[in-house]
What we know:
174 residues; single chain; disordered C terminus
Amino acid sequence: xxxxxxxxxxxxxxxxxxxxxxxxxxxxxxxxxxxxxxxxxxxxxxxxxxxxxxxxxxxxxxxxxxxxxxxxxxxxxxxxxxxxxxxxxxxxxxxxxxxxxxxxxxxxxxxxxxxxxxxxxxxxxxxxxxxxxxxxxxxxxxxxxxxxxxxxxxxxxxxxxxxxxxxxxxxxxx
Length: 174
């Protein structure tokens, strides 16, 4: 279920319950549109003024954990337990790009200039790496390695990339 509140008026604005299973990720696409994805393996785009589902995006065969975007060109990025990262063109019924990883993604984010997607890929229980992909083709540009499991990744507007995770089982917060 997706719920939307107006924090100024403290009012519940909308409730959308079409997923049927738990929602794992949600993203405002604009002030009037929301995308949600979850354990039913689909992304739903909701229109707030009409309280209706606007789009139904199917392509993943695993839980959708991450949504990023949208870009000014109308792209939304999704990552799921099926190992796929997908780039959806929201403004048209165009073919969508996707890339498959042979591992679980932990995090997906879009760069501020919307030219790159960073995907944290789990290699083992104790390590992961970050794949940098181009937008809109999702071509691999670079892989960044870490010697620990990464849980989060973020871009800066100045072209920096930060990641966070844990160094080892005994670490107390490095």
